């Protein structure tokens, strides 16, 4: 037993002392509330089969997807734990049509947008799924809850995801860096196991050449995406083709990209010009994490963090990973604008 183990709480408190000495400590309390929800989700995901949590809950979420019991459970856990932390003013969830305003008596100064259980269509076949969140400060000058919710990624205070895979890991990003904490069920704590995560450089030994996209939609891709993917599959000269890896669960695909390098893509298509991934609670937090780890994000034209959200559930094309590869994609979009 490591009696000096670095838990998330210790880590965040030390970061507060070093970087935000005058801070109230509310962000630490908020993160602990998130951790409780994540631990409970991890437990529910692990025992879903035994607890017969599979199957439909009979209701559907804002996007009309059939909601599974784990979706409902995860959403309630996030909302209840955040509400009872007295640190949140208003929230937005993938599972709720409208924002969730915390009752006045329990309101705090933070805004949280989250996808409580992303990739849930993979639950029944035991593929890795995850939770994604972004945390903003409530703007001092904002009166309307919706203006608190619709903030760009440049205003994020922190963002993270929990990956429910062969182990449960929390990846937490602040402007001071990205750190990975693995859940140790024997003590019920997330322990710092991957300090200062950086996305590998392409020329580093650990930097793998992986492109991650659902090739099933190739018929509908823009010319820019078609040309980019072709250059990975049929590179010029002596360069070897890139490997294709695609789980179809964003947390799994982005976590692999963070660990091994490469490029994750969910582009807009002729059928769906903004793609499928939600801007506010999927693209923005994941882009923040990848950029804080030294990678790059884009919607095909600029960093996702620069995009001003206009609606809670709006979708956005997303490209994440190696800086030089994202630059190539943006150049291709300059040459072949969307829809060509
Ligand atoms: P497709 C899961 O349903 C999800 O929202 C993301 O986690 C994932 O990246 C994407 O959809 C997969 O979508 O169209 O490739 O099945």
UniProtKB/TrEMBL annotation:
- According to its UniProt record, the EC number is 3.1.3.11
Chemical reaction(s) catalysed: beta-D-fructose 1,6-bisphosphate + H2O = beta-D-fructose 6-phosphate + phosphate
GO cellular-component term (any): cytosol
Q: Which residues form the Fructose-1-6-bisphosphatase class I N-terminal domain?
A: 6-194
Q: Where in the cell is it found?
A: Cell junction; Cytoplasm, Myofibril, Sarcomere, Z line; Nucleus
Q: Alphabetically list the UniProt keywords.
A: Calcium, Carbohydrate metabolism, Cell junction, Cytoplasm, Hydrolase, Magnesium, Metal-binding, Nucleus, Phosphoprotein
GO MF terms here are: fructose 1,6-bisphosphate 1-phosphatase activity; metal ion binding
Q: Which PROSITE patterns match?
A: FBPASE (PS00124)
Which coenzymes or cofactors are required? Mg(2+)
Q: In which pathway does it act?
A: Carbohydrate biosynthesis; gluconeogenesis
Ranges for domain Fructose-1-6-bisphosphatase class 1 C-terminal = 208-333
Kindly name one Pfam family recorded for this protein: FBPase
Report which superkingdom the organism of origin falls in.
Eukaryota
The keyword Heme belongs to this UniProt entry's keyword annotation: no
Biological process annotations from GO: fructose 1,6-bisphosphate metabolic process; fructose 6-phosphate metabolic process; fructose metabolic process; gluconeogenesis; sucrose biosynthetic process
Q: Which Gene3D superfamilies match?
A: 3.40.190.80, Fructose-1,6-Bisphosphatase, subunit A, domain 1
The principal localisation class reads other
- Fetch the InterPro entries from UniProt: FBPase_C_dom, FBPase_class-1, FBPase_N, FBPtase, Fructose_bisphosphatase_AS
What does the protein in this record do? Catalyzes the hydrolysis of fructose 1,6-bisphosphate to fructose 6-phosphate in the presence of divalent cations and probably participates in glycogen synthesis from carbohydrate precursors, such as lactate.
What quaternary arrangement does the UniProt entry report?
Answer: Homotetramer. Interacts with ALDOA; the interaction blocks inhibition by physiological concentrations of AMP and reduces inhibition by Ca(2+). Interacts with alpha-actinin and F-actin.
The Swiss-Prot or TrEMBL record describes its family as follows: Belongs to the FBPase class 1 family.
Report the protein name in the record: Fructose-1,6-bisphosphatase isozyme 2
Q: Which organism is it from?
A: Didymodactylos carnosus
